[in-house]
Amino acid sequence: MLDIMPIMKSLWRNKTGPLLIILQLSLTIAVVSTALFVVSERIAKIERPSGLVEKELFKLWMRKNTPELDMEQIVERDMEIIRATPGVIGATPISSLPLSGGGSSSSLYINPDNKLADFPTAIYEMTDHALPTLGLTLIEGRNFNANEVNFFAQENTPEQIVVIITRHLAEKMFPNESSVGKTVYMGNAQLTIIGVVDRLMGPWPDSDFETSATILPEIMKDNAINYLVRTNSAQRDEIMLAVVEKLREIDSTRLIVDEKSVEQIKRETYTSDYAMIKILSFVIFLLTFVNALGIFGLTTFWVTQRRKHIGIRRALGSTKAGVMRYFMLENATLVLCSAIIGSVIAYVNSSYMARTQGMELLRIEYVLITVIFILLVTLLAAYSPVRKAAQISPVEAVSNV
Amino acid sequence: MLKMQSVKKIYRTDMIETHALRDFNLEVKEGEFVAVTGPSGSGKTTFLNIAGLLETFEEGQYWLDGNDVSRLNDNIRSKLRNEKIGFIFQGFNLISDLNIFDNVDVPLRYRGFSSAERKKRIINALEMVGLAARARHLPSQLSGGQQQRVAIARALAGEPKFLLADEPTGNLDSLMARQVMDMLEDINKNGMTVVMVTHDPDLARRAHRNIQIVDGQVTDFKIYESYVDSTHNSDAAGKKVAENTI
Amino acid sequence: MWKYYLRLSLHSLRNTPVLSLLMVLAIATGIAANLTILTMHSVVSSNPMAHKNDRIFAVQLNAWDPEREYFALNAIPPQVTYQDAKALYDAHLADETVIMRKAGLTIQLPESTELPSAHATRMTTRDFFSMFDVQFIYGGPWGKNTDDGPEYAVVLSEGMNNKFFKGENSLGQTILMDGELFTVVGVISDKWQLVPNVYDLNNLPFEAAADAYIPFFFSAAKPYQGWGNYQNWSDENIRNHQEFLQSETVWIQAWVSLNSAEKRQEFTQFLENYISTQKEQGRFKRSPGYQLNTPQEWLNINKVVSKDNNQLLMISFVFLMICLVNSTVLMLAKFLRKAPEAGIRRALGASRHSIFFQHLTEAFIVGVAGALLGLLLSLGGLAAVRALYSNYENVAVFNGVTVVAAIFLALLASLLSGFLPAWRISHAAPAKYLKTQ
């Protein structure tokens, strides 16, 4: 008894109401499917692995206040103390932090005379402790040796440097061969690639080169630097406070500030993405709510308006279930029409966005999921009033008042 | 008061054309109490709607209180309805969530009377039908007969030119029916023209004159006379027999 | 007559409490979402220097890489080199010239035992304070000679003044900044916040104003911890601060005010001459050589209004539409249910207009109630937005736009959701509903 045509004809006869509902549901389907898509895109963006063992890491910023003491000495002393702290697995000074939104970048060239073929990359200055501290996976070549680590003053900027790069960068620069042993150029310096790690993101997650990074064992002696520390994840936050305390004890004139976990760095950098996810999720919730209430109110009204119609059906032999099926089918018909129109609206909008703003095109799964979801919501919202409709007795058909 | 000449009303749907009234002629003089009768589907309802300016018609003319109201727009018709016609319906048609006072008030609001004027008229009208004490009650708190009396008050409050009653006692038991009919007769004795549509011949006999509609036209008189003669009710029979006027 | 309609409408709404509530809620939700996003968007897209939009300009100089254009914005670097900034300042041609940068300095009271802390410090020339209408609660900007010295003067924010001097008049007091003693000459009210901070859009457009201000030329004397951006396209070897100052590194923001057409003419002439001279030395090989941007243009170039902002704005309007359609449907249902009453009124002499306006009044009440509730809910919405975005304290705030928008939306909602239903019921043929015969 899936006769949609009579239902459609009867809806068409009194078309204002149904047309309005179709408008409402179409727009809802368009918005919800787009919102779902954006939410899932953002979640995927946030969940991109940074390459770090995020749960085990924290950082702090150190700025010395003692011009007489050499930065290298200070850092090495601090590192010894930090590494000796119980619970600490590793520590390294680091120029800037992945995903933090701030840091340094540069361009690498394969051919010093061809500046136009450049490979942008994030630059990290770290020590030989970098790989074990960050939890990076070496897939080719080797780690730095302790004697390759060099603290340099600005006037003695080194020109021959060994580096470790990420796989993506290696694949871009040397597509079908190993990059280990190759030489590339950065400014006036010559970089020799000694190792490749699987993955390490740069400081700017939205940039074009977010997975290209170059690690240098050369640390410029400035007044300030970051420390990145790895601990076991259960005690990380306590150890962070303990380490900060201890470093301040050693020298209270300097700044030990801005300590935070890597997860917090990520949360802060992705603030607008998290916000978007939350706002859009709330919008989806509100729309569901508004539509459900609307369908509930409307169906209740329709049922009372059509008491006689329902009574006649029952008098002519329809079962209670038959009445329910009729109204549920009516609802489903409306949803189906709305689904078609809503998808068209969603796609038109999406392709406009794709063309003008360079966004991704909406994928069909999201529309399908949305349609099924809205169908369930409307059927559920209509259930109670429809069940009441089924209780209407055939006597209504003959009553005259 | 009311004169219709060669009125023709056609209802059209996609498939069918129904001639509800064809070459319909009727005249009601001021102060008359006229009953319009006929079987189901004869066109009584259409006549009522047209007489009450609720519907327009295709051909013919309609004069109301000396004015040609045949081709007026909706706004003017509404105004005339408001000022000149007092409706009384079979189902009373009171507004269920307004109290009696507010119900009688409705047509007066569209008249533009001041608040004081409206109040005066409403109280007068309710006193005339003996329901002034129930002014603040809701229709559901009144019996059928009382509701119809309220409807009469509502119809009278605006001092219309004539009353148009559609089966006024159809939903009432015989006692209440009699009260309502007595009231209508009294109102008519005081000079109000009354046009009453009914299919009940006993009721029709209480009017001065009966006009019968069959198939959209006023039929001739002869058939009607014998119909009247064959009734048995002696109370109602005290009424005048229908005149030979069409 | 409208008083009668009002009475009838209130009566009618009271008789269907659940339905009326649903309608009001639907409209309120739509309006609340719209107001929240609209408020946010209006601030994000606002120009706090609109009143001077034709007079002040962000200066861009294009001494970038001859082989490729600057990789972002409008293909011209947003900051200038030290050489170029100094040339602008020394010319003293514009009505006001501002060169500045953001640095992080350790600030402490002399002989304090408190832990030192690092604070955002704007190192700028004095015209900054007049150009950007800075409001002082004590004192004022330093004098001209202070800039040239540079002399050890500092302007603090009210927050800093509260922290170090308990909020009292601290003029004349001294404070240590990166180990050197500076004298307080002014304190800026915390109410002065440009939202967005158009004068420096390199980092976060909505971050709070700086904690302290010292004369720019201290940056020439020695390197400070930069908290802004440094960019350099060339391969020059920079071995010390002197070489840094002479390099092609861009790290300074430059603004000028030009109050008349003649002044603008003079200034652009000066720039063109300067650029030709520099070209002879091998610089400024790109074109255009310079660009002057009004605050509005600067905001646009820096894309302060993000794609997300725009997408949310659009979604909020569609959301409102959905809520309005929902309300229309419910209103239509309600009115049609009462069609018999409308029929009776028509029979008793009400014109179509009268029925129309009677029902439009009912829609109007629902719309106004919905807007009021929506306005209230939007306060919650704005609070939620502030919690979601770390530096939107000044962005997601109830302001005049919110209220005006609410009024406008109330009217729109009432009209849109009420028109169709009111029209439908006023045009229903009364005879159909009169239960005649």
Keywords:
heterotrimer, A: 401 residues, four-stranded antiparallel sheet, 11 helices, 13 strands, C: 15 helices, 11 strands, elongated
Give the gist of this structure.
The complex is a heterotrimer of chains A (401), B (246) and C (437). With 401 residues, chain A is an alpha+beta fold.
What does this structure look like?
The complex is a heterotrimer of chains A (401), B (246) and C (437). Chain A is 50% helix and 19% strand. Chain A has 401 residues and is an alpha+beta fold. Chain A has 2 domains: 4-47 and 272-397, no CATH class; 65-253, no CATH class. In chain A, the strands form 3 sheets. In chain A, strands 3, 4, 5, 7, 8, 9 and 10 form a 7-stranded mixed beta sheet that branches. A 4-stranded antiparallel beta sheet of chain A has the order 2-12-1-13. A two-stranded parallel sheet of chain A has the order 6-11. In chain A, a hairpin with a 2-residue loop joins strand 8 and strand 9. In chain A, helix 1 crosses helix 10 (320-357), helix 8 runs parallel beside helix 11 and helix 10 (320-357) packs antiparallel against helix 11 (364-390). The longest helix of chain A is centred in the last third of the chain and has 38 residues, at 320-357. The mean pLDDT of chain A is 88. Chain B has 246 residues and is α/β, with parallel strands linked by helices. Chain B has a single domain (2-238), classed as Rossmann fold. Helices cover 35% and strands 24% of the residues of chain B. Chain B has helices at 44-51, 74-84, 100-109, 115-128, 144-157, 174-189, 201-205, 221-229; strands at 2-12, 17-28, 33-37, 59-64, 67-68, 85-88, 162-166, 193-197, 209-214, 217-218. In chain B, the strands form 2 sheets. Chain B has a 6-stranded mixed beta sheet, sandwiched between helices. A 4-stranded antiparallel beta sheet of chain B has the order 2-1-4-5, covered by helices on one side. In chain B, strand 4 and strand 5 form a beta hairpin. With 437 residues, chain C is of the alpha+beta class. Chain C is built from 15 helices and 11 strands. Chain C has a 6-stranded mixed beta barrel with strand order 2-3-8-5-7-6. In chain C, a hairpin with an 8-residue loop joins strand 2 and strand 3 (117-124). In chain C, helix 1 (2-15) crosses helix 13 and helix 2 crosses helix 13. The longest helix of chain C is centred in the C-terminal third of the chain and has 37 residues, at 352-388. Chain C is elongated and about 100 Å long. Classes of the chains: A alpha+beta (401), B alpha/beta (246), C alpha+beta (437). Chains in contact: A-C, B-C. The interface between A and C is large, with 57 and 49 residues.
